[in-house]
Amino acid sequence: IEAGVPFRWVAADSVYGVGDVERTLRRAGIGYVLGVKGNHWFGSWTMEPLIAGEAKDIAAGLPDQAWRRLSAGHGTKGERLYDWAYLPLADLDAEEFDCPVAGPWTRGLLIRRNIADGDLAYFTTWSPKGTATQELVNVEGTRWRIEECFETAKNEFGLDHNETRSWHGWHRHVSLVMLAYAVMASVRYQANSLKPKKTQRRTR
After folding, report:
1. Is residue 183 part of a domain?
2. Rounded to whole angstroms, how far apart are CA atoms 9 and 125?
3. What's the whole-number average pLDDT of the chain?
4. 203 part of a folded domain
5. For 174-200, how does the pLDDT look when each residue is reduced to its tens digit (9 = 90+)?
6. Do the strands 31-36 and 9-12 form a parallel or antiparallel pair, or are they unpaired?
7. Any alpha helices (H) in the chain, and if so which ranges?
8. CB distance 105 to 45 below 8 Å
9. Residue 118: is it exposed, middle or buried by C-beta count within 10 angstroms (0-12/13-18/19+)?
């Protein structure tokens, strides 16, 4: 934000927490999908039906029709399909937060359910009013692509193979690995984009 880099969304898992992060993003006019634990409390203000309680208890009381099967992006084994439930909790005016993006914004609860084992994950959301559930799911799904990038950088380029004891040494190592990864990603993209040359058939 301080550097003036343009971006519309922030996605994070529960390890980063909420609170200060939420307030900062709201004031900056940035939407978010932030992971929270099952005991995180949610409450609706003026929306129907009224909702109040911990995320895990709210999820347990949802009817079957509240869930939609949506893809969180394409993975190595195809589409990442989960069951999702989205509950808008309150519509708030951007002016209340000195937000530069005018108009109403919606605070909500997004719940992800694993198809295989029923495991649940919970997210607090902030988005312009009318944002589709699929877009929130797409935002949450970007975390997987980022984590895959880190995993590839570790396995193929040695991102975590360093024993540096200073900020400068660590920064140089990570910067070099990220540059190498970016170059190889660009080369792969260009190679996959090239169309094979057409061969002319000889005629007698």
Report:
1. yes
2. 10
3. 88
4. no
5. 999 999 999 998 998 888 887 766 666
6. parallel
7. 20-28, 55-60, 133-157, 167-193
8. no
9. exposed
